[in-house]
Design a protein that fits this description.
It is a single chain. With 164 residues, the chain is mainly β. The strands form four sheets. A seven-stranded antiparallel β-sheet has the order 2-5-6-10-9-8-7, with no helix packed on it. It has a four-stranded antiparallel β-sheet with strand order 4-3-11-12, with no helix packed on it. Strands 1-15 form a two-stranded parallel sheet. 36% of the residues are buried. It comes from uncultured Nocardioides sp. This is DUF427 domain-containing protein.
């Protein structure tokens, strides 16, 4: 099935205009992560990874997470663009979100800016927000995209998108 991109409205971006290989773009939007009813990360210094057919993935500086929230865990995955990822459980107020965060300890060339930054799966925590808007998780459980009203799809991860 070939995707038919949705038409962006005023102030929106189409994920079909994002590049491949992906782009790394700074953002000064207020990005927050809530777990266990508390804000465990808050920043205006995030980085967005923009890749064709994917909603943006936000990477927050590790220093902008509360102390003790990021608990390293075993295992890794590999991204053809960014390199080997390491994972974190996020822990706060007696709540744990297993493998909800990841980082690239040695990002590949072109993605060096991701060093000391952590992405979060929005569907595994209480909520993630961008400038106060609650994020919707990218479908499929594998990708970490953050869907807001500022982006239009269709998005990879939804049923029927495996071959995109």
């Amino acid at each position: 099935m070939r995707a038919r991109p949705d038409r962006p409205g005023p102030g929106q971006e189409s994920v079909w205009d994002y590049p491949r290989p992906p782009a790394l773009v700074p953002s000064d939007a207020l990005v927050e992560v809530v777990l266990g009813g508390i804000t465990v990360a808050s920043t205006r210094r995030s980085l967005r990874v923009l890749e064709t057919s994917h909603p943006p993935t936000y990477y927050l500086p590790a220093a902008d997470f509360l102390a003790g929230v990021l608990m390293p865990v075993e295992g890794s995955t590999f991204c053809e663009w960014k390199g080997a990822a390491s994972y974190f459980d996020l822990v706060a107020e007696g709540r744990s979100a297993p493998r909800a965060g990841w980082t690239y300890p040695t990002p590949t060339r072109g993605f060096e800016g991701l060093l000391d930054h952590v992405a979060v799966m929005p569907g595994l925590v209480d909520r993630c927000t961008v400038d106060g808007e609650v994020v919707r998780a990218q479908a499929g459980g594998f990708y970490g995209g953050w869907i807001t009203d500022a982006v239009v799809g269709p998005f990879k991860g939804e049923p029927g998108t495996f071959g995109w």
